[in-house]
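Recall from the previous chapter that SMILES is a line notation for molecules. Here it describes flavin-adenine dinucleotide.
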Amino acid sequence: MLRDALGEDAVADELAERRLYDHDLAPSLSMLEMTYRSIPDAVVRPRDAKQVSEVLRLANKHRFPVVPRGAATWGLGGAVPATGGVVLDMTSLDRVIDVDVERSTLTVEAGATWQKALAAARKRGLQIGIYPSSFPSATVGGWIGVGGAGIGSLKYGPIWENLAALQVVLPDGSIMESHPGGSHLPLKDFVGAEGIFGVVTAATIKAHPVPEKTLPVAFSFDGLAAAGPFLQRLPAEAGPMHVMFSDRTNFDWLEAAGVHTGVTSALVTVVLEGRTGDVERSAANVTEMAASSGGKAPPPGAGEWVWRERSYEYRFRKLGTQSLPAEAIIPLSDYGPAMEEAYSLIRRFRLNAAMKGSLADGGTFMLMPHFLIDERRPLRTMAAMSFNVSMAGMAARRGGRIAGLGMYLPYLLKKMYADAEIDRMLTLKKRLDPGNILNPGKMLEGRYGSGRRMSPYSTRLVMGITAGLRRLMRPERLPRPADGPGEDDAGGPGV
Ligand SMILES: Cc1cc2nc3c(=O)[nH]c(=O)nc-3n(C[C@H](O)[C@H](O)[C@H](O)COP(=O)(O)OP(=O)(O)OC[C@H]3O[C@@H](n4cnc5c(N)ncnc54)[C@H](O)[C@@H]3O)c2cc1C
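With both inputs in hand, we obtain:
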């Protein structure tokens, strides 16, 4: 039926190929297989919006789930089927439709990578303000689906403020154009919707002239806690384009993986852009601010290295283990206590973690601990997932939230959204997708009808039990450089 509608080449149903789509970037959690039916029944690669529409019309008629998928780099299972069905692999919709220099906009299909969009803009003297640090592989539609903060969000604002229009295929198969101020389904409804309200097929992204100079400047601190006062001053006093930080453990792991940086402390990198003279004055000002907060000069070239490497956050994968992200967005005013609590959670869960983060906007920061875990040990992997739950609780208590829910965390819905917003989204979902065919088992599914084998609350129970067991175990044994922190010293020195 799908082949009749879309052609032979657009559909794959061999088991070997379907299996490639039963997980995303995160380690596949074999213990959760009893909860989800993650192997799709078919994979469809549409070539245009009309084919996406056709799949959704068939899905409504024959009642099968449809799961939009970009590059599957998210890690929370948003692009993985929870209840089987069809995975809509969007990566063939990857054309650059238009670069409008006069209006400073760029229109691309949703399966194009951010890298491709950035390159197309740059060719015409334009720069896209914001993009995820996974830009070489993450798709435009995938990041819109996640609605995350990324490189440039500090200066250019959240993703919906950087979009001029979206082409969306609604769950009933109708194709619409959505705009920021539209009274019917405004663009913001589809940003951060985790692919449950519609399939984004194209996006018009706002762009800016390429700045004369972009300069990363870095500073060493005795631990990330010590960098707090400096980070809190930066948005108002320096107006940087991007600010990112990582602890010493991150650099120790890189060293152990054979990547030499020479950095042996926590590092804050501030990225400035604008006219050459302004940037140089701003760099001098930021250097003074850092010095007055205890920041020191790192090894020469450290800032440039970190900036150049901004999309390679997993170089330490060479240590022979998998890594799992957990992201929380927390008020910047709470930086010190939140950082302390995050490290204490890492110790409590006996995880091997390196701390990374960035300033998400002027008032919040994103905390992204990375764990090294051995995927062959499912109990430990599950416990690392349950660490995310504690991080979510910590963020919510402090007036923050986690970065998304995906397939693994929908029971944390109330820790991410206020009740009124949840009610609004439930009403919208029921109106747009009464048959619940688009990405079922995700996001709202803690409260919305489910076709899963186990409820999201059972998933939480499994995670809770494994977390308890995890605390009784030793941390993973990992290669470490000779002078690295001890196995139990997850925080690294000075934190
Ligand atoms: C090294 C690294 C760095 C990262 N940096 C960042 C960062 O800076 N900021 C950040 O927010 N995240 C970051 N991430 C997480 C992730 O890469 C991004 O969120 C990314 O944008 C997801 O894009 P994707 O194409 O891989 O989406 P997928 O993982 O394929 O999908 C993500 C969600 O969007 C939905 N979706 C996919 N395509 C569409 C579509 N066309 N229409 C509607 N819904 C759709 C899916 O159903 C799913 O729920 C990072 C990940 C890695 C590995």
